[in-house]
Amino acid sequence: MKNQRAFIKQLKRGQVYRRSELAQWSRAIDRTLAELVENGTLQKVSPGLYYYPDESTFGKVPPDETALVRSFLKDDRFLITSPNAYNGLGVGTTQLYNKATVYNHKRHGDFKLGNRVYQFQMKHHFPNTLSNEFLLVDLVNNLNKLAEEPVAVLKNVAVKVQEMDQKKIARSLKAYGSLKTQKILSPLLTS
């Protein structure tokens, strides 16, 4: 018990930790972690990944998505997005999806972190932050994965391209567009 208190004093609420980071504070790290998970002090969010929950008046606060993915990847170079982000473009996508996509340089596949499944996709190039131009290109890249009718969405995309900054779309298209997406969107650009 005394060792657990000393261990917990090292932790900061709201932080996500890798097992390897926590090992420095315990001689029997696996036993300590098992006890702390069992008594609810820590939450195991993935193999080798633990969360020390922050508390609010409504109970335990889930981990920050960015901190969770950063700890999982051991890297700051990633972009979290979702097909739900396409809905804000006004091109006829209205479906809601219960998935998040993480573009990154290290992992590929579906991984459950906490209570959510993330689809990790290895990409050579992706922006640091989401922009409408990137989302438009990404939507066309992933058109075959959406529930909406592709032909109808593409008609709306053609109209939307004319309303947006053509130079920014061209840069996004060159940097992030697949060959198929480039063939679809390039003829729509006027500048």
Principal-axis shape: elongated
Mean pLDDT: 93
Sheet with most strands: 4 strands, mixed
How many helices in DSSP terms?
A: 8
Question: What is the number of independent domains?
Answer: 2
Q: Name the helix and strand elements from N-terminus to C-terminus, one letter apiece.
A: HEHHEEEEHEEEEHHHH
Q: Calculate the terminal CA-CA distance, rounded to whole Å.
A: 69 Å
Relative strand content:
15-25%
**Which structural class should the secondary elements be placed in?**
alpha+beta
User: What is the number of E strands?
Assistant: 9
Helix content: 25-40%
Low-confidence regions: none
Overall radius of gyration: 21 Å
Largest sheet, spatial ordering of strands:
6-7-9-8
Task: Write a structural description.
This protein has helices at 2-9, 19-22, 29-38, 65-73, 132-141, 150-163, 166-176, 179-185, and strands spanning 15-18, 43-46, 49-52, 54-56, 59-61, 78-81, 100-104, 109-113, 116-122. It is α+β, with helices and mostly antiparallel strands and 191 residues long. It has 2 domains: 2-63, Arc Repressor Mutant, subunit A, CATH 1.10.10; 76-188, no CATH class. The strands form 3 sheets. Strands 6-7-9-8 form a 4-stranded mixed sheet, with helices on one face. Strand 2 (43-46) and strand 3 (49-52) form a beta hairpin. Helix 5 (132-141) packs across helix 7 (166-176). The longest helix is centred in the last third of the chain and has 14 residues, at 150-163. The relative contact order is 0.11.
